[in-house]
Every structure is written in structure tokens, then in C-alpha cells.
Protein 1
Amino acid sequence: MTPILYGHPFASYVWKPLIALYERDVAFTFRIVDPDHPENQARMAELSPTGQFPALVDGDTEIVQSNSVIEYLDLFHGDAVPMVPSDPCEALQARMMTDVFDDYVQTPMQHIVGNALRAQDQKDSRGVADAHSMLDRCYAWLDRRMQGQEWAVGGRFTIADCAAAPALFYSDWVHPIPKFHSALAAYRVRLLSRPSVARVVNEARPYRSFFPLGAPDRD
Ligand SMILES: N[C@@H](CCC(=O)N[C@@H](CS)C(=O)NCC(=O)O)C(=O)O
């Protein structure tokens, strides 16, 4: 039986397990969660404590949280090299960088995007300003860290790069990476050229009109 991934192709947290699935060549079924598929919406609402995607169903096993889905795939699907390195010290670094991309790039990016969806009288201008500042600080930190590095951790593509790809893809749309952060900008280009990442970017392309701030004419 192949595992079933619930999510939406445009959703940044769904890209993470999709990238891992493509990297590791795991067969799976994708169930899109959108208003045209109320049965998938209902299932998603059952699976997740918040209703947020992704979720993976594999027989009787139900996994939520993008990072846990990736770790589950490492354990039970495919014999390709795992996304979480087997060396414990490298694994710790990979999990740390995954958290950095989730907490300090995705979270402020989502805050900025979420604010654009709010009614005019419910805008959070202070929160948006803080989100832009967080991205500035984090870009500077990441740029230093990516000097001379091909991938986020340990010289090969890991779970941290699965997290980095959607985080930097969308954060650059809402808060462009300055040209002087050349190592970080080059890392984003490298990520987007990776076949697994290029595939999720292409699969999400038909939904770009949903981007509330207007998708830029690039990438
Ligand atoms: N911590 C969760 C975050 C999941 C998340 O934020 N999912 C977003 C999509 S990128 C979502 O479901 N948004 C729709 C909603 O909130 O209704 C994870 O790692 O899976």
C-alpha cells in the first residue's frame, strides 16, 4: 500500500514532504485539500489538531507535522539515503537548521501573507513590521552560515534543505533577499534548480493567482 499525503500543492509546509518524497523516489497518492474536495477537507480536519496540512496516512498510521512526515518516510519508505542524517551530530545540525527555516523564515513570511488576507480593520501593522525585521536578521545570519556551503548541513541535501526551499522561495517574494547577501541568494537559486524542488514549484504554478500579495513574474 502506498502512503497518502494530504495537502495543497501551493502550501509551503506541504512542499517539505513532497520534496522528500521526490528526493527519495517514494511512490505515494496525493489528496488535494480544497473546497472542490470536501471529503479530503473533512479527513484533514480529523487528522490534524488544527486542520493544517500536511498529513500522511500509511495504513493505520497517521502522521501530522511536516518534519515528522519526513522522518517517518525515512524510517519506513524507500531505501534511499535518509533526509535526517544517520550521524547523530549531523542529525542535530539538520534538525536545528530545519527549525531555523520553519521558525524564523516560514513563520514571519506566513505572518506577512496572512496579514494581507485580513480585513482592513484587522490589519496587524506592528506584527508585520516585526516579521520584516526578523527576516532581515535571519537573512544576515543565514548568509554568513551559507558562505562556502552548498547545502544547509553536511555537504548533502537533507531535511533542512526540504525546509529551506519553500521558506526561502516564498520569503523572497514578500521580503526580497538583498543582493549583498550573495551566499544566501545563491543558495536559493541552487535550491530552485534541484529537480525535486523544481518539480514542486512547477506543480504549484497553476495556483499562483491565489497569492494574496500578487506573485512576482519570476521563479
Ligand atoms: N507546523 C505545521 C505547520 C502547517 C501549516 O502551517 N500548514 C499551512 C499550509 S502551509 C496550512 O495548513 N494552512 C491552511 C490553514 O491554516 O487553514 C507543519 O510543520 O506541518
Note: The beta strands are 4-7, 29-32, 55-58, 61-64.
Protein 2
Amino acid sequence: MTKKRDDFQDIIRKDQAERKNKTWSGTFLDYLELVREDSEIYALAHSHMYNVIDGEGIVSDDEADDSARSLKLWGDHPPRIYNFFKDEFFGIEPALEKIVRYFHAASMKGEESRQVLYMMGPVGAGKSSIAEQLKRKLTEAPPIYVIDGCPIREEPLHLIPRSLRDQFNGMLDVKIEGELCPVCRYRLEHEFEGRYENFPVTTMTFSRMHRRGIAVVPPVDPNNQDTSVLIGSEDISKLDQYSEGDPRVLDLNGAFNAGNRGIVEFIEVFKNETEYLHSIITATQEKFVPAPGRHGTIYMDGVILAHSNETEWRRFKADHTNEAILDRIVTVKVPYNLRLTEEVLIYKKMLGRSGFKSHIAPHTLEIAAMFAVMSRLESTPKCDLITKMRLYNGEDVLEKGRTKKIDIQELQEDAKFEGMSGISPRFIMKAIDTALTDSADGITPIQIRDVMIRKVKEMDFADDVRKQYLELLQDTIHKAYLEILEKEITKAFVYAYEEQAETLFQNYLDHAEAYVNKTAVKDNNSREEMQPDENFLKNIEEQIAIIGSSVDGFRQEVISYLWAVGRRGKKVNYSSYEPLKEAIEKKLMESVRDISRIITKARTRDEDQQEKFGALVQNMLDRGYNEYSADIVLKYASNHLWKD
Ligand SMILES: Nc1ncnc2c1ncn2[C@@H]1O[C@H](COP(=O)(O)OP(=O)(O)OP(=O)(O)O)[C@@H](O)[C@H]1O
Ligand SMILES: [Mg+2]
């Protein structure tokens, strides 16, 4: 027991010592020395934020996991992946890149530093989460220097009088901006008799709870657009205590005061009245906000971050009297993710944060993600929706035994608004939660699809949208799942499936290579030379309808493709080349005709069949199912795949 208590105390003591290490106090004169040693101490809000983001670095090329996929998705211009965002956000790289670019430009004091960063996107696309991430990382960043006792924690260099600014700029290698706030000005005069070098300086960490450098403004009630929310107020109780114009009556707790040096976030910004928006824009442009009462203006340095969904944005944009405001906004579209693999990662992230610990059978999240992604895609004459989804996911799609050649970038250009509507991750998470609550033993793709169908029927969608969603769930996704399930069960049924597939693959390669190069095949055991076995090759190829005159071309392609993969230093295996993988899998599936009898005839299985069934179930358990979910999907398969 005491040992355990010591553990806690150790941790607490270490943490306190570390914090103490990071704090600093001194006079303004001491602070000047610090800045002379390291001029980067002086950083405006945008610069500071950019340094925090940039400081975490980017994912380097050799860290990036799948270069072949990246090439398919992005061509020669893959987006930068920032470590700052990488564990939290999936599939919206271009939006994140644009946000970082905004901070970069603003940190160079470009026009961006005087513009609002505005994120626009459909519900649940991650706008609030991005804002959250920026704020959270600020609170974890090392402290910054502030004037001790200043209500808006201003930059100490404001103490340097105008007349000396040029000289100090040169000595410190900085470019000082901003004016002392009324409260510090008053203290300088009355407390320090103008001796600004003695003013106390200290460090400050950002805190959302204490509204230190971070302020959040929800939409303000239109009947009560009181500016004190933004700029603070005068404390009425002090008004008779101090003379008029005495800044000690100021209560600088407005959003612009609280968010000084850091971030002021406006939620659903366009729900506010235009007048109110103008004061936000002025603050951003001028970097000054009015002080309450008759106290002049206060310099303000902060990132103004706003977001809303597209409907509000459109309404606002349609009114041309808003042009002046629009011109002062950097808009970043935050669309839904459109890649299946990444969509699953979003749910895994969200599930990781919830209290649910139940079993989730393989492919469950994938089926949910399919629905979400397809609901967001625009249809195209070039291919069907599920093909588009697979292409966007960087997968190879087969057409008559060949990989389909459609340019992803072209598809994207044809569908400019893609990702701005459809099913949100929140909808899916609610469906997953419902399914998990309904079933204590775990959930399967079958249950999640049922819940999604139910929810679509309940929700208030437009008729044509509801129809389209139900079609996706009841038809497209149903079929897609049956294909997955058939493969899944075959894999579990075929003894040592992967090894068998690998053997078929190696044999195919040996024979196809010999065929193409017009050489002989060496038998592995007897070392005897023999002619390539054309019947064997055809047997595989016909699985994907490669027959007759097309076999020569196909064999050539397989060999050169795999040769290219090998040359890039990648290991080749049976799944390296999608058409061949498909052929091999179909071949293996063909070899298990009796699978149906074993699965469907639960009551009449003989001993041998019972044993095979037992092995099948065991195999499924090894592949991530539990007894319950294996039972459900096997029953489903017997009803839909192998019914006699
Ligand atoms: N691309 C994504 N990557 C990771 N998580 C995501 C992504 N898109 C959405 N999410 C997650 O979905 C949930 C909803 O997102 P969030 O609340 O940030 O959306 P929002 O755009 O602010 O929506 P609203 O317009 O309704 O306020 C969050 O848990 C968020 O982390
Ligand atoms: Mg939000």
C-alpha cells in the first residue's frame, strides 16, 4: 500500500518540478536579455501556432506506409502529412494542408495574419475537432512570456516606447508590434513612475478552462448582441470608487481579451447578425478592439478561427452586402473523407474514446464505412458507385480480367461538390452504439447494416435521398458483403488457405514466365526440365474470363508487373497483382464445393462433416470472430450464399 502511494507522490513531485523549471519571472530588463539571446521568443499568435505545428514535423517519405497507393491517389503530388494532425484526422489531408499554409503565410505577417481562418463543411466533418486540436496543442506547448498582472497577458515588448522602437528592433532582431493596454499604461504611470524596465514579466501557459489565450464564442442571441461578450465591460460596482477614465474599472474578460496571444474561436459564426460580424472583421483587420466605455482601443493579437456548415455559408454569401466581409476571410473547405480505409480509422478512433469494449466482428466497421463513403459520392457515367469508392480508396478494380484504368483525378474534377453532403461519421457512430447496446455479445456486419437501415427509415431525409440510401444498404452493400463473406468463409474452410494461394501463385509465375520467355520450367524436386503447363495456366486464367487470344497479353502483363514490383524492393506475393489474386481466390473457392453441405445441413452432418465444420469455426475464431459472431455470419451465409 505505502509503496503504491509513493508511486503517486513520485509522479506528482516530478511533474511539479518540471513545471517549475518551465516557469520564469524577472523584470522587463531581464526579459530583454532573453530576447537578445533568442529573438524567436518574440512570436505573434499566428507565428506561435505555426511553430507548434511545424515543430512536430511531417511524415517523411520512407515513413509513409504505402507508396503504391499514394501514387494512385495523388500522382506525383502527395500532400504533406503533419504529425500534428496525423493521429486524429484521416482522409482530409488537403484541408489540413491548407490550414497549415494559412498559418505559415500569417506567420510571415502576410495578409493572412489579418484575416479570419474560416472552416466550412458539412455537419460532422471534423471542423470543431480541428479547432479542438489547435487549442489542445497550444495548451501543451511551452509557456510564453507576458507582462505579469496584465489582464490580457500582453507581450512585454509593448513596454518599449515608440521613440525607441527602431533602436530596439535592431538590437533584438525583431519587429515590435502593438501598444500597451490601458491597464498596464495606468500601472506604468502610477505604480512604476514610468520606469518600465522594472515592470515584472512572467511566463504563461495557455488554458482553455481559465480562458488564458483561448476563447470560444458560441452564436450570440440576436436579441441581445451585447458586445461585452467580445470586448469585456466596465465593472459597475467600481464606477463610483474610481474617477472617470480610470482603467481600473475595466473588466477585460471578453473573447478578444481572453483569446489575446492565442485563439478566438467562433462557432457557427454566420448565425450572428451582420453588425456583429463586422466587429469581428474589424478586430482581425486592424488588430485593435474597442475597450469598454471610454477607454480607447486595445491592441489584440490572436488567431481568429471561425466555422459553420455550408447552408449558413451559402445564405451569407448570397447577400452581396457581405462582400467586404468575404474579402477578409480565408476559407478552407473541410469535406467528408472519401476513402474507405480512412473512414474505418475514424470510427476506430471514436470507438477508442468511448466506453464500449464489446466484440466487433471483422468487416463490421468496413460495411458501415462503405455506406458512409458511398452516400457522399456523386454518381458518374464512367463507373458504378462501388467501383468509384474502390478507386478512391486506391484499390485496383477489375474489368474483364484487367485492372480498370480510370483516372481518379479526372473523376474528382467531374464532381466538384463531392464530400460536401452525405452521411456523417456521427450518424455511423450512433448506429454502431445502438448496435452495441442491443447486443451484449458483439456485433457483425449484418447487425450494423440492419441498424443503419432502421435509422435511415427513421430519419428525416428527403424522399429521394432516403430511397437512394436504402438502395445502397439493401442492394449494393448487401451484395458487396456477400462477396466479402464468401471469400471469408472459403479462407476459413480451406486448409492453410494462404499457403495454398501462395503455392498456386508461385507455380503460376514459374510457368507463365517460362511461357513468356519460351524457356523450360525446372521441377523443384526432381530438377527435371519440362515445358510450361498451359492447361494449368488456363485453368487459373479462366477464373477471371481471360481466354483465347487474350492469354498471351495477360501472362506478359503479370510478369512485367511483378518484375517492376520486385525491382522496387517489394516482396511479391499472391495478392501483389489484383487480377491474378482474384483468379487464384476464385480457383480456391471453386475447389470447395462441399462447403455448402457442411454449412447448411446443420442437423444431418456426418462425423467427417462435423469435424470439418468444427475446424471451420475454429479458423474463424482465429481470424477475429467470437463464437457468437461466427455463428451469426455462418447462418447468414447458409441463408444467402449456399442455400440449396
Ligand atoms: N476526417 C476525419 N478524421 C477523423 N475524425 C473525424 C473526421 N471527420 C469527422 N471526424 C470525427 O467525427 C466527429 C464529429 O466531428 P466534429 O464535431 O468535429 O464535426 P463538425 O464539422 O464540427 O460538425 P458540426 O457542423 O455538426 O459542428 C468527431 O469525433 C471527429 O473527430
Ligand atoms: Mg462543430
Note: Residues 463-493 form the longest helix (31 residues).
